[in-house]
Amino acid sequence: MKIYRIGLIGLGGMAHAHRQWMKETGRFDIVAVSDVNEEALQRFGDQLGINEEKRYTDFQQLIQDADVEAVVSVTPNNIHANIMRACIEAGKPFLGEKPFTRTLEEAAQLLELYERQPVAAMIGFSYRYTPAFRYVRELIQEASIGTVRSFSLQYLQGWGKADHPYIWRYDKAITGTGTLGDLGSHMIDLARFLFGEFEELSAQLKTIIPERLDAKSGAKVKIEVDDYASFQARMSGDVMGIFHTSRNAVGSGNQHEVSIYGDTGTLHASTLNPDQIVWIREEASGQLSRITLDVPSHCKVKQYNDFLAMLDGKSGGLLPGFMDGYRNQQVLDAIVTSSENKSVVSL
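Now predict its structure.
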């Protein structure tokens, strides 16, 4: 089978996870790396045994490298659009990080280019590959709980509590939004994955911690992005949803979960128990039963297996592609608009 030569851009913490995921497939070879941090570039390059001439401080040079067949980008938000634009212009397939871009304006410019010269593209909405979420999607489509009427979806983390120092994720120029783009983009994609498109929404964004200490300078920095977001939405088929996300939820590690309410039952799935779901249903006797089901093996699909399928020209309909990224950014923009104007926004 073909081994794909990968150029990896962005060598922070998540790059190590992507490196491991690629290694597990046995069909990727990282042949070039790029980062603006020289120390990270040399350390990562040494670990992988990459030649000095394939270690780039300029990501454009990596994308233009003829030895690079596909690009994996794991960078801060402010260069997502530029990297995707360079890949499209070079005709290089890519896996890009979420959120898609910082703003809808950036996304619209990319869409115009993509429609003229599309390339194979995957956006890193990795929770489509949580087995429990795949299984509840299957059960919804089988009408196992009858007509779905509503759902609640939350994504909580605890690392952003009040004493957490200032980092790039609080810098509006880099991130565009705060918790909304970081965690909320995953909630939006999961909702689209399970229920279809957003039709209208109303939202409230809040900066709970208005200042944070910069460990380097010792000064307090004003925070201009949200660290709490909540919104409600009407989805396709009049399915109603409530969303809640925060990085200030002390005690929450990586708590991304959904509860789905249908005419004959309820389904619950969570990253805290990714290989099982809870199904509450009404029995013939009229009594309610609560059962825990193991997720079947066919729902345990790996993200990089889908990336491989895409590169092989065999990608299926569940892969989060370029348009999933663009639609996600449309919803993010609508949430910001709704919060700023205290209004209901139609999509």
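The radius of gyration is 21 Å.
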